[in-house]
Specification:
six-stranded mixed beta sheet; 12 strands; binds fe (ii) ion; single chain; 23% strand; alpha/beta
């Protein structure tokens, strides 16, 4: 199975780039399933229902969120009826939405997509390891599901790496999101889980993690609340990864994708 995973879509420039590129990437890379992180699509803060619809229409099979899940309030009724939009699994019980989506592809293969959020330098959350363990107790890689993907939304590389090793053998891939910077550590772990500590954002990299530079710099230099952060609006680099899995659900390869904008190009061989 060929899986496309794109990182945090940042503002209008990120949305426009992803909506334009998704159909092309799906075709050129012969993608079976595409997952997109949409937590920053709405001006950097949250995701509005019409933006989610545009991403689905462009070819996203599932959309994940993160610490910005609820920044656009309209997403709360929407997430209740759109099961392919998920938020971190380890929110406290009673939080709207689900942290996992179980999808059946046209050919009958089942794909499970899970999102968890880290706890290092992040909001207080339930344990991502225990939350994932409970879900994975009901899903067996290569038996019940052809692929199991985890979006680990977190700040700390150590926590993401520890998580990936903890679930190596039980999942096809652990893909990091949230830092907005792609890491150069793509690998298939010994048990067959593809790992990348962060896939990066789909946004303008002439910025401070996607936000306009001057107000972002002022926050560090002045130590005073300043001007509201606005997304940088130059050409986006689309950042993500291609993961290819075998019949047992384990990853055969993971390769980075970086297209357009300022970052050095990376495009997997078809
Ligand atoms: Fe983000
Ligand atoms: Fe985030």
């Amino acid at each position: 199975m060929r899986i496309l995973f794109l990182g945090d879509v940042m503002g209008r420039t990120g949305r426009d780039a992803v909506v334009a590129a998704l159909p092309v990437l799906r075709r050129d890379l012969k993608i079976d399933v595409a997952v997109v992180n949409g937590e920053n699509a709405s001006h950097g803060f949250g995701l509005a229902p019409d933006m989610a619809e545009a991403l689905f229409a462009a070819g996203a099979d599932a959309i994940t969120l993160g610490n910005h899940s609820w920044d656009r309030k309209e997403i709360i009724p929407y997430i209740a009826q759109q099961k392919r939009l998920i938020r971190p699994l380890n929110y406290p019980p009673g939080t709207p939405g689900e942290g996992v989506v179980d999808m059946t592809l046209a050919d009958g293969r089942r794909v499970l997509v899970v999102q968890v959020m880290g706890r290092l330098f992040m909001d207080a959350m339930d344990c991502p390891f225990r939350a994932a363990e409970a879900v994975l107790a009901r899903a067996r890689l290569g038996v019940t599901h052809a692929a199991i993907l985890v979006d680990f939304h977190g700040e700390a590389t150590s926590e993401k790496m520890a998580f990936a090793h903890a679930f190596d053998g039980a999942v096809s891939a652990v893909l990091g999101t949230h830092t907005h910077c792609p890491t150069a550590d793509c690998q298939v772990l010994p048990g067959g889980a593809a790992f990348m500590a962060d896939v990066g954002m789909c946004g303008d990299y002439d910025s401070v993690i996607g936000m306009g530079k001057a107000p972002a710099i002022a926050r560090f230099t002045r130590k005073m609340p300043g001007e509201r952060l606005q997304p940088a609006e130059g050409e986006a680099t689309i950042c993500g990864a291609l993961i290819e899995t075998g019949v047992d659900g384990r990853a055969l390869r993971i390769e980075p994708i970086r297209l357009g904008g300022r970052l050095a190009r990376a495009m997997p061989s078809a």
